[in-house]
Amino acid sequence: MADGLRLLHFPASAKAAARPVLAASVAVFRPDGRVVLATRTSPPASDVWSLPGGKVEAGETLEEAALRELGEEVGVSARIIGFNRHVEIIHRDADAAVSHHFVVASFVAEWLGGEPRTGPEAGAVMWADPFNLGGLATTRQLGEVLRAAHAIWERRT
Hints:
A hairpin with an 8-residue loop joins strand 2 and strand 3. The protein has one domain (21-154): Nucleoside Triphosphate Pyrophosphohydrolase (Alpha-Beta Complex), CATH 3.90.79.10. By secondary structure, it is α+β, with helices and mostly antiparallel strands. Mean pLDDT is 88; it is low at 5-10. The relative contact order is 0.28. It is built from two helices and seven strands, in the order E-E-E-E-H-E-E-E-H. The strands form two sheets. A four-stranded mixed beta sheet has the order 4-1-6-5, with helices on both faces.
């Protein structure tokens, strides 16, 4: 692991991914500018710090999915301020076939209530300084996503 990055190991797949999987995440900021981060409890990003999020369910908007996942994973409620950016996670197997492809719509939100808690999907949680992750093992693009999210959060008024 260098600069807080860690190689993510995707579970073996019986066949290549048929199509990308749509997911949503959310950067939730408290009034002091700290953001909630969590580690996942299962692959592909187990024990790696990232934003709460997960797969979008049929009939659900991206914003609804982000807020649902936030509540399910860490028990926090928030109000969406805006869209930040999308992140693509593509993994290929040894034969260069796509085994996993996630497209994550990342949002920015302000905290309404609840203190982050661990659970079946979040192994550890914290309120973090978005500009000082102190060598934490994080998902690859987390620093860039947090910098852009913080700029959106600061312009909210």
